[in-house]
Amino acid sequence: MKERIEQLRDALNRHNYKYYVENAPEISDRQFDALMHELQELESRHPEFADQNSPTRRVGSDLLSEFVQAEHRYPMLSLMNTYSIGEVQDFYNRVAAEAEKQEVELACEPKFDGTAISLTYVDGRLERAVTRGDGQKGDDVTANVRTIRTVPLTLHGGGYPAWFEIRGEIFMPHSSFERLNAEREERGEQLFANPRNAAAGTLKLQDSSVVASRRLDSFLYSLESDALPHPTHWENLAEARRWGFKISEDMELCRNMAQVEAYIDRLDRLRHTLPYDTDGVVIKVNDLALRTRLGTTSKAPRWAVAYKFAAERALTRLETVDFQVGRTGAITPVANLRPVLLAGTTVKRASLHNAEQIALLDARVGDMVWVEKGGEVIPKITGIDLSQRPADSVPIVFPALCPECGTPLVRYDGEARHFCPNQNGCPPQIVGRIVHFIARRAMDVDGLGEETVALLYNEGLVQTVADLYDLRAEQLAVLPRLGEKSAANIIHSIERSREVPFNRVIYALGIKFVGETTARHLAAHFGSLDAIEAASPEELAEAEEVGEKIAASIRDYFADEANLRIVERLRAAGVQFSQAEASDTEMLSQSLAGKTFVISGTFARHSRDELKRFIELHGGRNLASVSSNTDFLLAGDKIGPAKLQKANELGVRIIDEHEFEAMIGEAEISGPSPEAPAQQELF
Ligand code: IVH
Description:
Low-confidence stretches: 60-65, 666-683
Strand content: 15-25%
Shape: globular
Radius of gyration: 28 Å
Mean pLDDT: 88
Distance between the termini: 19 Å
Bound molecules: 2-(butylsulfanyl)adenosine
Largest sheet: 6 strands, antiparallel
C-alpha cells in the first residue's frame, strides 16, 4: 500500500510539473483527478503514511491563527534601482574594474512584479516558505505556498545540496487576477488594485484553501547554500530547473554592455505579451566568486542592479463621462478621453469606478488626466494635472436617475456604487443577465454575442434567459448577420447547455454576489436548487464562503416572483438543477449506501467539500440540515450549538472526522471490496 501511495505521489508531482511548469500535460485532467482521488482515498485510509508534502495537500486546509516569524539564514536584501542606461553602464564599469576584465558575464532577468519568497529545502523536500519581512526575518507562509502548483514539494533527480534556500517571486498571473477581481466585483468586495497587491494579500491569507483557489504562480531566481553545485548563477539555475523549479526561459546570459542593452530593449517589448507583470530587468554578476569580491552594502548587493521601466502613463483630456448600467444594476462612470497612445494601444476610455473614486481624484470634465495601464485590461485614471485645469472645468455630477430607464438610483449601505433597482424593466440589466447566463464559464452558449442578444431582446424574442430554450432556428436565421448555419449552431449550443453541470447553472442565474466559487460551494453543500431555495439564511450561511450578505442576496433572488417563474421554466427545459451523482466508475464503494449525513464546522484534515465528495463516492447522501431523516452529523470544530442540540434531540448520531475516516476504511475492509482500481500507466 505504501508503495502505491508513493507511486501516486511521484506521478502526481511529475504531472503537476508537466502541466504547470512545462505547460505540456501528458494526461487529461480527468486522468489526473482520478489519480488524485485515489491518493486522497488511500491517504485517508492510511493516516500512518501521511506526508505534509503530499500533492494532496495542495488543496490546503490548515487554519493558521497567525503567522509565525522565521529568521532568514542569509538576509534578504533589496536591489539598487536604476532608471537609465547610463546608470547601468556605471554599474558595468564598477564590476569590470573589480574583475579587472573588459568583459564580464551578466545574467539578465525579468524583474517579476510580485512578492519575494524564500523557500528552504532539506533533503529535497520543501521545509518552509518565508516572506521577505524586514529582510532579517519574515512570516512563515509555508501552508499557503504549498498550494502553489509550480512550487515543487519534493525535488526531481538528484545533486541538490542537503540544505539550500531558493528565492524568487510569487505572483498572480493576469488570468487569475482578472478572475479574482471579477468575482470580487460580483460579491461587492473591494477590488485589488493590481496583481502584485493581490499576490501579496493572498499569500497572507489565513485559510490556505482560499489561497489554493486563487492560482498564484512562481518564478525562482537565486540559490543560497554553502554547497552549491556550480560556480556560476546561470549553471545553478539550470540545475534548479532540472530539480523541478520554475525558472524563467526569458533570462539571458550577456557578455558585454551592448548585449545588456539589447536585452533591456527586447524585454521592454516582450513584457507586454507576457501573462504576468514585470517592472524592469535585473542584471546580476554571473560568477559567484566575483560576487563575493564585490560584496554587499547593508541594503543591497554590489553585484546586481535593477533597471526599472518607466511607468507607462499618458496625459490626456477628460472630455465627457458616461454612466453605464451593468447586469446587476451597478452604475459605472466611464471617462471618455481624447484618444492617446499608451503602451502600444490607443486609449479612449477609462473607468472612474464610482462616486467615491471621482471625489478622491477630484476629477472634472475638461481636466488633463494621467492614464495608466496596470495589470488591468481597462486603463485607469491615476491623477489629475491640476496646473492645467481649465477655468471652465465642470464637476462630475452623479445622476439621480438611471440613464437607461429613468428609475431613481439607490446606494445601499456599505456600497461605494450606485444601483438602478429596476431589475426587471431596465434593458441593459436584462440583456446583461442574458449575456452572463450564456457566458463560457456559465452555460457556455456559442455564437451569441452581446449585440445579438440585444437584438433578440429588442425583437421581443428573448426577454428572460428561459426564453432561450424556446428559440427556433428559423426565428434566428432571418436576423441580420445570422444565416441558417449559425442559427443552427446557436440552437445546437443551447441544446447542449442543458448538460452544463449544476454548479455552473447556479453561477449562470446571476444571483448578486454569487460568483463561480460560491456557486461551487453551494452546489456541493446543498446538492440541488430546490434545497437552496428552501434553505433559511442561517442554513445558507453554513455553506463555505457564504456569509450573511450572500445568504440575504440568495433569499432576495428566490423571493422575487419573476425569478421563480424563470427557474420553473428552466427546470422544464431540462437544465441541470441538481448535482450529478458520481458515475459508477468513480464510485469507491457502496459502504455508505442509504446513509445520510449533515456536515458542520471546520475540519483539520479535509475541507467540507472533500468530505461531501467522500460521502458521495461511498454511496452516501449529503443533506443540508439536521432532520429526522439524518443518520449522522459529522461535526467539526466551531459547530453551531443549535445544530448539535437538534441532533441530540432527534437522536442523530454525532461523529467526528476520525470516526468518519474509520467508517469508510472499516466498511471497506468488512464490506464487499470495491474493484481494485486498475493499475494505470503512470508516465
Ligand atoms: S534578485 C539581493 N531577481 O525585486 C536581491 N530579484 O527590488 C536578490 N525581484 O526583493 C534579488 N525579480 O523580490 C532578483 N529576477 C529577479 C527579480 C527580483 C523580481 C524582486 C525581489 C527583490 C526586489 C528588489
